[in-house]
Amino acid sequence: MQTEAEGGGGVAPPGYGYYDGALVPCSREALVERVRLGRPTPLVWTPETAGLVRPWHVPYLFELLHQRVVAAARQRVRLPALACGGVVLALLAGGAPALGSMGAVVAALAGMWLLAALHGLSTARRLTPRAFEVAVEQRVAVRPASTPYTDALSVLLVGVGALQLFFFDVSVGVGELGRETVAAGQWWRVLTAALLHGGVVHFALNFMALRDLGRLVETFAARGFVPLVFLVAALGGSAASLALPPHGTSLGSSGGLLGMVGFLGILGWRRKDQLPPGFLKMIVIDIALIAGLGILGYAFIDNAAHAGGLVAGGLVGLAAIPSSARVPRWEPGRAVRLAGIASLGVLALAALFLVVVVLLVALS
User: Fold this and answer.
1) pTM listed for this prediction
2) Which of 157, 132, 143 is nearest to 69 (CA)?
3) 229, 263 in Cβ contact below 8 A?
4) d(Cα 183, Cα 244) in Å, to the nearest integer?
């Protein structure tokens, strides 16, 4: 067996072994144990293979990897199952009124979490070597070395969230969106409302969504789109909230985040041949779930802001993302980078303005 090691410059000797920066001959038992324990084993060789191959191309090694994937999927089912169990106990103890409107949304989220985990377990059980390879490629693809714009936007939300822990009522009074207050000249609310949240659960859900969506945008589009889309969508969501009924007050980052979802939907449609399989389907499912939550929690969810943000983000995508048939190699240029920096600056100024005004009001 005289096959060049990928990146190693050596040749694979006969027998069994693995390559992890160097060729390491070993027994079959040692190779099996290494894979079973999950130790780094990017390439292997065996008497049954024609040179160095990925371990999932060896049937008995793939079976070990498959068992590990299924075991991990089972672990991911436990926590949402406990959450759903808690919801069931609450219903048995106090009936449907015990949950309340917000509780109904939390119950729906727990149910969707459990369904997603069960779907993951079902997918893991049907895993094939090719599907395993695609999953590995996707996992690596969606974890870039750094996500500076997502991190920066996260810092802004955390900073404002920390302020709300001490001055919640004042922050809401100063920064939430309302038709009457904006009409009275307090125009800053169209942006400050997107940095505020109604509680810890609201903040946690939006923060986790920002981390996931921002990473996808920075990986598959360009980093500058994260603050740019968030800013445009936040403004679009505020505009829709002011223009469409019901005309109450609202706050939260959901409009900006839905803008990222809309942007990623256009990306998945126009560049689908250059993205992981199922990318667009994932985005469409997310939109459907969010729409379902909006219907369920219509009494306290600003669906107009959600829709406005989604549309605004989609429009940014339509304006900026060319189809792969028209532009096979798409590299967003300097204009997107500058727009991203400018958008992040605007959001930082809005956060600073909010902090200063809240402190002045609270300490006066």
Assistant:
1) 0.72
2) 132
3) yes
4) 15
Contact between 154 and 210 under an 8 Å Cβ cutoff? The reply is: yes
Query: What is the rounded CA–CA span in Å between residue 18 and residue 24?
Result: 5
Instruction: Give the Cα separation of 101 and 297 in Å (integer).
Output: 7
Beta strands 23-26; 43-45: pairing state = unpaired
| Stretch (H or E) spanning 252 | none
The b/e string for 167-182 (b: 16+ C-beta within 10 A; e otherwise) is: beebbbebbbbbeebb
What six digits make up the tokens of 332?
A: 């967003």
Query: What is the C-alpha separation between 345 and 69, in angstroms, rounded?
Result: 43
Count of Cβ atoms closer than 10 Å to residue 316 Cβ: 23
Query: In which residue are the tokens 């590299």 written?
Result: 331
**What is the helix (H) or strand (E) element at residue 48, kind and residue range?**
none
Per-residue pLDDT tens listing for the chain (364 residues) = 344 444 443 456 788 999 877 888 999 999 999 988 888 888 899 988 878 888 988 999 999 988 988 888 888 888 788 878 877 776 666 655 545 555 666 667 677 778 878 877 888 888 888 877 766 665 554 445 578 999 999 999 999 999 999 999 999 999 999 999 999 999 999 999 999 998 887 888 888 889 889 988 988 888 999 999 999 999 999 999 999 887 788 999 999 999 999 999 999 999 887 777 677 887 887 787 777 766 666 667 788 999 999 999 999 999 999 988 788 778 888 899 999 999 999 999 999 999 999 999 998 8
User: Whole-angstrom Cα distance, residue 250 to residue 234?
Assistant: 12
Only one residue has tokens 């079959």, namely 28
Peptide bond into 332 cis (omega under 30): no
* Token representation of residue 71: 């075991």
Exposure b/e, 293-315, CB count within 10 A at least 16 = b? bbeebeeebbbbbbbbbbbbbbb
Q: What is the DSSP letter of 19?
A: E
Helices (H), 38-99: 59-94
